[in-house]
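As a warm-up, study this chain.
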Amino acid sequence: MSGGGRNGRRPRKIAQGWFWAEVFEAATEFVRSRGVWVVVGNAGTFFTALAALVHYWSRPLPFGAYAVVQLGCLAWQAIALLPVVLPGRAATLRDAQEFADLHEGMTVLTLCGSGIFGMFPGVMLLIAFGVDSERPPWGALLFSGTALMLACVAGLCLATGVSHRVQARYRAAGPPGVSHWQDGGDGFADADAGGSDGD
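Now compare it with the structure written out below.
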């Protein structure tokens, strides 16, 4: 019985080893890709708003401080846009589409997740505990949440327009699956000319 149990655990360990090896390989590949900047930018947007919330929870938040928080959130969203704007010289049309989809998914997750699980419950708690609307927690919650939401909406709008232009450039350059940033599509003309000469 003990030998059978030992033999049964061995394939399980091998399977688990393969699983974690694949997970590690996929994670390493993602970290090395430009898509990681989408995650970094959205995480930076969230933590900038969270830091503002914590810092101004017990003190008044002046308009100048709100402007700084808003600019910080916008700066992080600009970082998240990098893979959409510049997919890379070796990128293909499919890569550009995947970067655009990743940015949309992560930004919507940041926007909706912060509102549903952060701002809305926070407002409900402040109301439940009878916190005066003129107290600093209200300003901290509303201003930090507004800064995050405006930055995310701006990032989504810019990404939509930019991704359409970038993908249109790939489609105009030729069939998908080949990088066109360096030759501007001249490689296809040369290949067609060579093929016609051979015929």
